[in-house]
Write a structure and sequence with these properties.
Elements lengths: L4 E6 L2 E6 L10 H15 L6 E5 L4 E3 L4 H4 L4 H7 L2 H5 L8 E5 L2 E3 L1 H7 L3 E5 L3 E3 L13 H9 L1 H10 L3 E2 H6 L5 E3 L4 H13 L3 H16 L2 H15 L3 H12 L9
Parallel strand pairs: 2-3, 3-5, 4-6, 5-7, 6-8, 7-10
Antiparallel strand pairs: 1-2, 8-9
Helix pairs in contact: 6-7, 10-11
This protein binds octanoyl-coenzyme A.
């Protein structure tokens, strides 16, 4: 039974709602474990094709739980290895969309950056305030933000620890879309339902290839894309997609 999140599904979309409203969804370790376990459960559920992570109206998540971290020693952290849990998010092959209302700060911003697509409310606030706590992002923030906006801008934001508006985040290529705050969840679900109609094997092969473009040298990325292209021809959905084109009818994809 989850204590800090709610999980449900709607028409092949698995939804994780962060639910620790009294502390703006601050992420303690147990909550991160619940999120990751639920992601894995959706990943293993054939009925789920797309995953959405959302918060509430005030916050996606205002960071890691400062109370929990405050007295940690370096050895506690080394032995707890808290970020190993976060690494598991990057192993999820289904599309993960983030719907951000309110604050996405510190670990909350990092959770959004672990998602493939980010939609945000006009008044959403992103940022890494860790510098003001005498630390720095630890769950991949320096890496994700730099890959998204480039070295100079990332340094400026992370050094100053200031909050970025949704429009600034959009301008720097950190998020996908800005929408009216009352429509964030609706728009994210709409995008999720569009993805549900796409062939799931293609979606996962595309996800792997696009991250290869971010993380690998060009030729290695091209080689991986090529192998994934060949692999797509093992699927029934490739046969269906091409046959439907020839038959001039819409395809029905099965995920096989
Ligand atoms: N941790 C614990 N409690 C929090 C956190 C947090 N990150 N954020 C908010 N809260 C609590 C507040 O203490 C407050 O509790 P209470 O009502 O009991 O006093 C409640 O949430 C509401 O917050 P505020 O009263 O402060 O609300 P405001 O609207 O005035 O301010 C802010 C909202 C600006 C978001 C403010 O709460 C704030 O600055 N929060 C902290 C933001 C922050 O520094 N985040 C970074 C944390 S460090 C981090 O994320 C490192 C990531 C590495 C991953 C670590 C994995 C182990």
């Amino acid at each position: 039974m989850n204590k800090y999140i709610k999980a449900f599904s709607e028409d092949h979309v698995g939804v994780i709602q962060l639910d620790r409203p009294n502390v703006l969804n601050a992420l303690n370790r147990e909550m991160v474990t619940e999120i990751v376990s639920q992601l894995q459960s959706f990943e293993n559920n054939e009925d789920i094709r797309v995953i959405v992570i959302r918060g509430n109206e005030l916050a996606f998540a205002a960071g890691a739980d400062i109370d929990e971290m405050r007295d940690a020693s370096p050895l506690d952290l080394e032995l707890l290895n808290p970020f190993a849990e976060w690494d598991k998010i990057s192993l999820i092959k289904k599309p993960i969309l983030a719907a951000v209302n309110g604050f996405a700060l510190g670990g909350g911003f990092e959770l959004a950056l672990h998602c493939d697509v980010i939609l945000a409310a006009e008044d959403a606030k992103f940022g890494f305030p860790e510098v003001k706590l005498g630390v720095l992002p630890g769950a991949g923030g320096t890496q994700f933000l730099t890959k998204a906006m480039g070295t100079r801008k990332a340094l400026e934001w992370i050094w100053l620890g200031e909050q970025m508006t949704a429009n600034e985040a959009l301008k720097y290529g950190v998020i996908n879309r800005v929408v009216a705050k009352e429509l964030v969840v609706e728009e994210t679900m709409r995008l999720a339902f569009q993805l549900v109609e796409q062939p799931p094997i293609s979606l996962r092969l595309i996800k792997e290839a696009v991250y290869a473009a971010r993380d690998l040298p060009l030729q290695e990325g091209k080689n991986l894309e090529r192998k994934n292209f060949y692999l797509a021809f093992a699927s029934e959905d490739q046969k269906e997609g091409m046959q439907a084109f020839i038959d001039k009818r819409p395809p029905t994809f099965k995920g096989r």
